[in-house]
Design a protein that fits this description.
The structure is a homotrimer of 186-residue chains.
Chain A: H1 2-33, H2 37-41, E1 44-52, E2 55-57, H3 60-68, H4 70-78, E3 80-84, E4 88-92, E5 95-107, H5 113-121, E6 130-145, E7 148-158, H6 164-173
Parallel strand pairs in A: 1-7
Antiparallel strand pairs in A: 1-2, 3-5, 4-5, 5-6, 6-7
Chain lengths: 186, 186, 186
């Protein structure tokens, strides 16, 4: 009886951990696309790293600044979806690795307002009002903390043929750490 | 022992609730893209609301009619994916809030049949056979019912720069109700 | 007490099964986009079937060959995301059915390098660097095995108006087997 209870508790804990991590990752897009800078930053540990193609942020304050930046605020105002896919999560005690793709889908600004109205009225017209600006590989390293699971390092590379991007997908799917990718980007 | 059992039951119930809601949301796209009108309608409560940019449906019958409409049937025949992302779910007793993005991806009708054939034969040619017609923010309010979890109000706004759309993402990610967005868009 | 334990074990098993299947499906994209041929093949049973529009693979070796093929390697080198959505899973004892959409998003090769650089520098320019080559319906039949859940038959049809594609979505969402779709594609 004791053994069965303990087994249940342990199995349930693993499911809860995976659920919590998936939930955290699923909240990134909605939070970043609504400019919720504090909540986005809180997905990382205090000195968590967000290493993306053009920039590496090394703590919550820098993540917050990215959300507040003119560039990011522009995307929100123009219309933008950071659309992350379902993450595959591998847990090892108090740390974890997760992997997913994302699409950054952006509205074509005000340029198509007229056509957009027409497109709504006429279903025959499948006008491309949005474009896929980026498809990206995301590798997350996570840790259990007092505030639940947080990202300690997220490494993101655009899938434009640079070899680090598929390598991140492979390592993430296999539950391996990202390792600093060499030769990061042209 | 009793305490441990009760704790397990309660924790498991929460995971099952989140799973059931995620599953319901994951079934929307496949059901609506296959014209399964009754099954789509059954995702809402009998008087559930589906408030989308151009139209507000206020019961299952109206959701069913939307699926049967000429416009929607056109999209199915032309080729269409209502592609919803992983939802973030927040449960409070017998109600819940969920949030996700979606992409409405449509085939470019029969206009590109020739090019499509060529594209398949020649992997060099990355011809865009499909376009992203919309990227949308979805906010779900849900309730536990005799038929499981159902949507009582779904509010969807296209991410084209109108401020209600990111606001829905923010409120959804934080587990807050949608509230009737003011100035609901042109 | 015994009854409560047994009920917990059974409910937990179902959640674990759904989690394992969702995880397996979520790993497909990262593995196939990184060319991890053995790991992709291992998602199927030894004689598992992958029936996709242009080709039907009937065992792991053929799945492995598809990953190694010139065509697939081209996509990896050019930049490609096989982006699968969250799956809806229906379990019946030791078999299961799952359904999801996917988008195959491809980089526009080297042709837009110049414009891409400009686009990064100028957030006003939402240049479409990636295109959606395909939106596809996926139906999975799965079985519990010594190596965990594996796919015994995956049937995938592009959502370009051919009737088998929405039919796969409908059957998958309702937990029904795919059945050999008649009149498979032009």
């Amino acid at each position: 009886m004791e053994n069965r209870l303990a087994a249940l508790e342990s199995r349930l804990q693993e499911l809860e951990d995976k659920q919590a991590i998936a939930e955290m990752i699923a909240s990134y897009g909605p939070l970043v696309d609504s400019g919720a800078a504090d909540e986005v930053a809180a997905l990382w540990s205090e000195d968590g790293i967000y290493d993306v193609d053009e920039i590496t942020m090394t703590n919550r304050e820098q993540v917050r600044s990215m959300v507040h930046s003119t560039g990011h605020q522009h995307w929100i105002k123009a219309g933008c979806a950071h659309f992350l896919g379902p993450a595959k999560v591998t847990i090892t005690g108090d740390t974890a690795v997760a992997v997913c793709h994302s699409l950054m889908v952006v509205n074509q600004g005000g340029r198509f307002v007229g056509r957009r109205g027409e497109a709504s009225a006429d279903p025959e017209a499948a006008a491309p009002e949005f474009v896929v600006r980026r498809a990206t590989a995301h590798h997350f390293e996570l840790a259990r903390s007092d505030q639940g699971w947080v990202t300690t390092r997220r490494t993101s590379r655009v899938l434009d043929g640079r070899p680090e991007a598929p390598e991140l997908l492979r390592r993430g799917a296999m539950g391996q750490p990202a390792q600093a990718p060499e030769g990061t980007a042209p």
